[in-house]
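ingest -> fold -> write
write: protein_1
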Amino acid sequence: MRIRVMSQLQRSLSIELPSLVPLQLPSRMETHLWFIRPDEVKSTSLLKHYSQLLSPTEKEKVLQMRGDELKKNALLARTLVRTTIARYQTNNEVDPKALMFKKNMYGKPEVDWQNYTNCNNPPLHFNISHTDSLIACGVTVHVPVGIDVEDKERKIKHDILAFAERFYSADEVKFLSTLPDPEVQRKEFIKLWTLKEAYVKALGKGFSAAPFNTFTIQSKVGTKGEYNLCKMTEMTASSLEETNKCDGEWKFSLLELDDSHYAAICIEDDEASGGAIFS
């Protein structure tokens, strides 16, 4: 599995829209992951320019945020989505400000491609996630994508195992209980949470459609940062049988961004054979 991450710094999220460098579309079963650190964007004039890219509804939502930092992060999140998608559409003269969005019946945001009759590219799928210190956007073609980012140093206020028993599957709780080091246990808890969030977001049906305790995320043997999805109805007493019955229709990858965050990516595998490539 190849992983290549694109960081949209202040110099690439530039004021002049023509400076957006056109990019080749992701190939089938490939994900492009973009991220930005809000603390790297310090120019007030740049932020004012970004606000001009947003729709009236988006601007209103940004202004409703409490506190300057929340407003700034919300603005950058919408800007990241718009400028990222526009990079793949510049040959069709779709600029960030012109992009229109809709939500599916479960509330997952999508680009409303019906408004672009001159766009011959296959429709892009995207998903966004953010913390106070990092914003990320995943982009795919043909297949849904879900991403989640979490701060590696995030503190868990509750007892980790007790918290896991409320939200995780029995197998995940058992796995966490075998970790004697509290710090390792905390990190593995966060990794599982990040992967589960990515899967639910890729499904695009809301959390009620896939409660965290109804499926298990397992590390894929012989790989680094790859995972399997196992449905509770498929679990058996044998760990070997569990692995064999894991759902291969979903591909996962877990990576670190800027040595400070975990990022999980989940995409649907519309080709039964072959592994997903994350770029």
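write: protein_2
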Amino acid sequence: MMRTRSKVGRWALNIFAGLGLLYLFTPIFFIVAFSFNKPKGNFNIAWQEFTFENWMHPFAEESLTHALRVSLEIAAVSTLISTLLGSLIAVALSRYKFRGSGGINLFLVLPLTTPEIVLGSSLATLFLGQNFIDFGFTTIVIAHIMFQVSFVALTVRARIRGFDWTLEQAAQDLGASPMRTFMKVTLPLILPGILAASLLAFALSIDDFIITFFNSGNVVTFPLQIYGAARVRIPPQINVLASMILFISVAVLLSGTIAGMRKEAAKTSAAKPKRRSLTKSA
């Protein structure tokens, strides 16, 4: 009886997990599939005919291409700054105990729990009465950095949580300066977490719509361009460019995963001869 219940529970769990994955991946499947569609009209929302013509001319829509380039520039600048700030904050909160660290932790969580419409409207109000800054590229970068720092800091901090700080002490006991210790010991060990956090921040920047909408001014990013164009026209190049971003992201993740697996395999194979030599000597 107990075995039957466990089997039923296992099957039910697998079914619910499969339905959840289907729910998540169905929109992605349609985005990629409709990039090969040849629509009859201005809206690429009904399947008509299979074609490779859209992929032969992915940058045919100049407005979409320009908006994508702007989004990539904003994401690159904001990700670079937020990765630097967030990583330093994570190291400081994990390495040192000081008064006010609890308040900093609270401020890091606030952008993650606050609705984006509140963040966007608050930043717009902040920039609205300022004479030294106009709505545009700079305000979008500042707005993106604000929520990216939280994601980077929390992601890097999760990586540092199991870090052995005695390694730094050992390096300094051997004569290494604090800067050399950080560059040669600490940074290589936390670098995978920093890279993962930077990829997450980059994806969030490209994907953001609400906060960007409130602080964009005359600058049009890729999500804003799609939103504006959807009222009159939905060309298949939208699906093509979105699919390209998806494929590049998957390729980067796979490359990182394969590189990590090879690194672990190399460490394992290098440790085996040492163990054999120790057993022989014993």
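write: annotation protein_2
The domain at 62-234 is CATH 1.10.3720.10 (MetI-like fold).
The chain has a mean pLDDT of 85.
pipeline exit 0
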